[in-house]
Specification:
With 216 residues, the protein is mainly α. Helix content is 63%, strand content 4%. It is built from 14 helices and two strands.
Length: 216
């Protein structure tokens, strides 16, 4: 039996599922493999939710491929925090979907097709959000995440900020040339930190010049 199935009757999973049913009926929050979902509902697995929260909230995009950890030693860290809500998962899902749709803009098909690349970019976006008061309040204050106007205001800025970050990431990839080992780098906490810091630093410089899109 998969670890995620063993957690399907856990209080944290049941609370999230109830929140989805009440606040986001257009989604089916799947907490056990093979659950029947109503026709027309978008399925969100608790596995994807865990990966999004791990990359965005816990700053560990490099662990997002280790599925066995999500419902084992990382389970309480990921789901057992008061700020974790259906609204938060849906917000992260919408950001993630935009990343997946545009990740090809980095100009490297193999890296664009590598799952960890999406979670890395999601993590970078988190750090960029923290440079703007409104987005910072949204991701830090669990009360704000329940306000659809706040979520939508920040989500509306994602396309422009994401486009700018993907241009910078394309440049970083080009700079590495034949030395690029994206599979190894994206699994390394140290390499992830270095690349993220470079992207965030470039964004900050452009923001101070008034050339980068702000979340505010």
């Amino acid at each position: 039996i998969k670890a995620r199935d063993l957690r399907s009757n856990h209080a944290l999973m049941l609370r999230l599922k109830a929140e989805f049913e009440q606040d986001f009926p257009e989604y089916h929050f799947e907490i056990k493999r093979g659950e029947a979902a109503e026709p027309g509902k978008q399925i969100v697995t608790n596995e994807l939710a865990a990966r999004l929260l791990l990359a965005f909230d816990l700053d560990e995009p490099y662990s997002s491929h280790q599925i066995y950890k999500l419902f084992d030693d990382k389970y309480a860290d990921i789901f057992g925090r008061p700020e974790v809500s259906a609204a938060r998962v849906v917000f992260l899902l919408k950001v993630y979907e935009q990343i997946k749709e545009r990740i090809h803009e980095i100009g490297h098909d193999q890296m664009a097709g590598y799952a960890l690349t999406n979670f890395f970019v999601l993590n970078v976006l988190r750090h960029v959000m923290e440079m703007s008061d409104r987005a910072y309040a949204l991701v830090r204050d669990r009360g704000r995440m329940s306000d659809p106007k706040e979520r939508e205001a920040v989500l509306a800025k994602v396309p422009d900020v994401l486009g700018e970050l993907l241009v910078d990431l394309k440049y970083e990839i080009g700079e590495k040339g034949d030395n690029l080992d994206y599979k190894s780098d994206l699994k390394s906490p140290e390499e992830v930190r270095k690349l993220r810091n470079s992207l965030v630093s470039s964004y900050e410089k452009e923001m101070k010049k008034g050339k980068a899109t702000k979340f505010d």
